[in-house]
Amino acid sequence: MRAMRRFWRIVSTICRYRLDTLVSPYMPEKYRWLLWASPLRLFREPQVSRGKRLTLALQDLGPVFVKFGQLLSTRRDLIPLDIADELAALQDHVPPFPGSLARARLEAALGADINTVFREFSAEPMASASVAQVHTAVLKNGDQVVVKIVRPDIAEVIREDIDILNVIARWLTANVPDAKRLHLTEVVADYERTIFDELDMRKEAANTEQLRQNFAGSALLYVPRVYHPLCSEHVLVLERIHGVPISDIEELKRRGTNLKLLAERGVETFFTQVFVDNFFHADMHPGNIFVDVSDPEKPSWIAIDCAIIGSLAKEDQDYLARNLLAFFNQDYAQVARLHLESGWVPEDTDAAAFERVIKTLCEPIFAKPLNEISFGQFLVQLFEAAREFNMEIQPQLVLLQKTLLYIEGLGRELYPQLDLWQTAKPFMENWMVNQVGPAATLREFAEHAPELLEVLPRLPGTLLEASVKLKLMQRAIERQRREISLLNDRVDRLTSSRRRRLSGWALLILASLLLWQLGPDASSNTTDSVSTVAGILSAALGSFLLLRS
Questions:
Q1: Given 77, 283, 305, 419, the catalytic residue
Q2: Predicted confidence band of residue 95 (pLDDT cuts 50, 70, 90)
Q3: pLDDT tens, 17-27?
Q4: Is 283 tagged catalytic?
């Protein structure tokens, strides 16, 4: 019953905001008449943009759909830009649940009265998000902390909404031609994994601790301390940080912050997470980033909310790094080759044509300050161009693309003159030297030195033995080839023999029928006729032998 009510609420929201008009341009011709005959046309279409209508509808449907809208806003490779821009404005400002309920959930997680652990606990939340809300508190030892508490019953709501989203995604995939390329079912599955991971505060605690260790002592990024003994599935306790929100540019300027250095450190932080640690904060929107301006000339980033973390397979990391360097060096032929080698485009793709398309897209953006180009727009154009070559969306790169778009947006706000390419290029060149240059080779030898020293004395004998085994293997393959050829000949002979036998048995049956016809007719009553008996026996024998064969 609850699921049905939820379903009808979604339907009524679609009607109220006339969301049918968003999908009508993409509907197959055979289904267009359904839209024209739809009773939704009785509802007046709101006099706002389609992106604004979708944003308002998601807000009305609640926190789960708001979160999904935020995810869609990062998929500028999938949805029109005007819709993506509106969805990017979605914020996690949802009504909080009562402070008394938050206190009860916290005490249940601690297994003790709240006053035995905290000197102070604010029942009024400082922030209320889609899956949890945050309260300030002070521990008995005087440490200032924040307590993140998961919303009650949110898992059930999420499960119901995910089931509905899956139904919608499957229907669109089955009925809208372009939906298959968009991988809508995979997008919903990715969202499902992401949001359920966000419900487990133990995972966020582990992610926060790992990111903190990766940047321990670094001037680039600070990550709050985790109070692990106080954390549980539904509660996370972190050090309370005091910084300036990165979106508050006026305050940063008022404090004399070196915005150029801050922007450059943001780029370096991103590439360090991706290419050095292979463990990157994948939700770096402005609400999760603060700035430590205790030394305005050397500001550093502060990251919170580490629920969503990304990493890449070694192969993807390597190909991505090579692609970025090729872009920086304007080596478009190399970009085309890498896309083919990685399997991102089909192997029968015309490499020269693909190279020309990439060059057409890339040439205008180089040697320009960041405020004159949009890397996000470039990515969209690249995906659109690659679509002509049947390039599929790479799910493993979605979180990375989303994070890079966030970094670009922050960089443009902080220091519009920042040249993203020139800032990132030296970092990537240094990474390539360390990963595939002589230093990397020596490091690999050093890491495996004990095993190599153990194997080295046996190397000549091993090589000789391998050579002998290779010759024996080649002889065995040749012998098997001959045996397979003989076996095929035998099968052919047996098949021919079987055909002959079948023909013989069939002829025997035909002969029996002839003998039957040559026998006395029914009016003679001569049942012991030789021809009749011979016919019956021949038919029986022929049928038996035919079935046996």
A1: 283
A2: confident
A3: 887 777 666 56
A4: yes
